[in-house]
Hints:
Blueprint: H1 10-24, E1 30-36, H2 37-45, E2 56-63, H3 71-82, E3 86-89, H4 107-112, E4 117-119, H5 123-130, E5 136-142, H6 147-155, E6 163-169, H7 172-182, E7 190-193, H8 195-201, H9 207-213, E8 216-219, H10 224-240, E9 245-247, H11 259-268, E10 269-276, E11 280-289, H12 298-301, H13 322-326, H14 358-365, H15 367-377
Parallel strand pairs: 1-2, 1-7, 3-4, 3-5, 5-6, 7-8, 8-9
Antiparallel strand pairs: 10-11
Helix pairs in contact: 1-10, 2-14, 6-11
Amino acid sequence: MKVSFPFRDPGISRLIVDKIHEVASELNHVKIMDFCGTHEWTITQYGIRSLMPKNVELVAGPGCPVCITPGYYVDVAIRLAIEGIRVFTFGDVYRLPGSSRDIPKNLEEAKSEGADVRIVYSVSDAIKLSKDGRESVFLAVGFETTAPATLGPICRGEVPRNMSFIVVHRLTPPITRYILENYPQSPIRGIIAPGHVSAIIGASEWEFVAKDYRISVVVSGFEPIDVLLSILEILRQIRDGRAELVNEYSRIVKWEGNLKAKEVMRSTCDVVDAGWRGIGFVPQSGLLLKRRYSDYDALTKYGIRELSEEAWEEDLPPGCKCAEVTLGMAKPTDCPLFKNVCTPERPYGPCMVSSEGTCLIWAKYGGDELLRGLREEIRYKG
Ligand code: SF4
């Protein structure tokens, strides 16, 4: 059967896939992690896994900020909402389950019980609405891509005093280091580094992967051809015994990143050890508002204690394998709840909520089913 490439440039894509097969034929098993949820979307939506040689395994990583937000902070937002404080958040956090069994399971349910929960498109919308003087909290979730937009108004003095933030911004290089340090039993031999995040932090922030761990790392764009080129580059490096950082997304990502955005983060927050859902505390992986901005820290303002080690016991719903999925140790289809108890319509675990969640992507766009189906049909002549 003829392989049809669902890309804008099928001829070039076919050439790259040919090269991938050629280089991979000289290698043993290679596991490559695509860090970012949007890369996982590209890989799954376009069936890129089905085009890979059998010895090239693509696994998703922790690049979905909604998936890794500890349930504790969702619980805090729900409790504040129930107590009459208006809670703002982004749409993909609305149905994110918290951890506590004693309160509504997510902000959507809290709203249905009468709490004032508002979905906003940006922090500016929340600031505008908060100018009415009502006590308001913004549940701020995201990586380095969204952190400057949340934090900028704080350091510019644009946030009214009646508004504060639950800051759950997390940093991507530290979790990558954590995975490489702690899970050597399933070695990752290449990393497709996140493009959007790198536009802020700069390609240079990924140099440690090659230098400290001798692993190939490519900062990649999000078109299918970007991902294919990044996979080819990683395989070539492995074949040649090299481990280097390559910026495939140089049309957007600079070596030093966005200096203004980085300065906003540096001047507003301290970098601290921070919790990742189902995983635990990861050293120096989160942002905490500096003391001079503590009036804007909802936990300080309302006397709520920070997340502690005890909170991990029930961080994920029983049976949910999200931690393994976000660490690249399991596929969504390894979870017995996938697409029966846990569906896009009724998400049970956090990886089934956001459009960047691996379980949601696999449930909507095929994942393993698509891969199996295409394998049966396609006789790829590599
Ligand atoms: Fe968790 Fe649902 Fe994914 Fe299973 S399918 S790992 S319950 S999000």
